[in-house]
Amino acid sequence: MYAVPLPLQAGTGEKLATKLLRQVQDELQKERGAKFVRIELFDHIWKTTPDHPAVVRLEWKDWNTSIEIEFPLEEELRGSDIPRISSVPAPPTEDRLGAAFEACHDLLFLKNRAEALEFAVHLLEELVPCEATAAFLLDVNTDEFRVVAARGTGARARQGKAFASSAGLLGAASSLAEHAVLVLADAAADPRYDENIDGIPGMDVRALLYRPLIHKGRLFGLLQLARSITGDMFSEADCEVVDYVTQQLSVFVAKGASMPKVAAATGG
């Protein structure tokens, strides 16, 4: 467990935790038996019990190829009644693009598509204020988009769910060309909108942004960002940031292995 100075730039917490993990892995390399490592980064120093959860939690098991990264403090704040959209104005476009450029270097340290999509969703949540963010991967076997990573409102309810690739605004966005972004100021008013596909549990969706994951003409998935009736329309600057992050993510996903195993959601 470590205490770190805040605020952390987007992606810095994951990068630091991953670096610390690599050091521990080197130290444990010659040890026998199963290995389980948990690294937690806190924003305060404590002796017996922390005042609140860790900012970043990373877990690695040597019998599992993936690294699990969570953001406990953010999850706790998300469960409160505090509005998701920050009252602090977003930084200038060039600053956000610079932060995205630096953060996307961390894709080199990730092992699979699921980790990369989780990383991208968290990064975009930091750089483009919104209330819900999700990353879908296209399952070519079932011709469905499956939610692999989600943050914000309705994230737990959406995780692992699959949707037909040709329905709703989700399907419309899948036919976009590379670098194209589908942005709607009032998504529910669009005749292509399907509440069961484009809607988000616990949220009155208003502004929606879709950007397909495309590399060399091949579609791999989609990113979705959403704001409710209290949020503003996504700006051109927002679209530039999303496009850059998605472009880098698409390259990684294109090189990735097979579709990650994501347990299908059960119930309503």
Textual characterization of the structure:
31% of the residues lie in helices and 24% in strands. By secondary structure, it is an alpha+beta fold. The protein folds into 2 domains: 2-78, no CATH class; 93-255, 2-Layer Sandwich (Beta-Lactamase), CATH 3.30.450.40. The strands form 2 sheets. A 6-stranded antiparallel β-sheet has the order 7-6-5-10-9-8. A 4-stranded mixed β-sheet has the order 1-2-3-4, with helices on one face. The longest helix has 20 residues, at 236-255. Residues 80-89 and 257-268 have low confidence and may be disordered.
Strand order of the largest sheet: 7-6-5-10-9-8
- From the alpha-carbon coordinates, what is the Rg to the nearest angstrom? 19 Å
CATH homologous superfamily identity of the largest domain: GAF domain
CATH class of the largest domain: Alpha Beta
Total number of domains: 2
Q: Percent helix among the residues?
A: 25-40%
Class based on secondary structure composition and strand pairing:
alpha+beta
The counted number of beta strands is 10
**Second CATH tier, the architecture of the largest domain:** 2-Layer Sandwich
- What can be said about the biggest beta sheet? 6 strands, antiparallel
Give the overall average pLDDT.
Answer: 81
How is the secondary structure organized here?
Elements lengths: L1 E2 L8 H17 L7 E7 L13 E6 L5 E4 L1 H7 L14 H11 L9 H15 L4 E8 L4 E9 L2 H4 L3 E3 L3 H6 L8 E3 L10 H4 L6 E11 L2 E11 L7 H20 L13
Parallel strand pairs: 1-2
Antiparallel strand pairs: 2-3, 3-4, 5-6, 5-10, 6-7, 8-9, 9-10
Helix pairs in contact: 3-8, 4-8
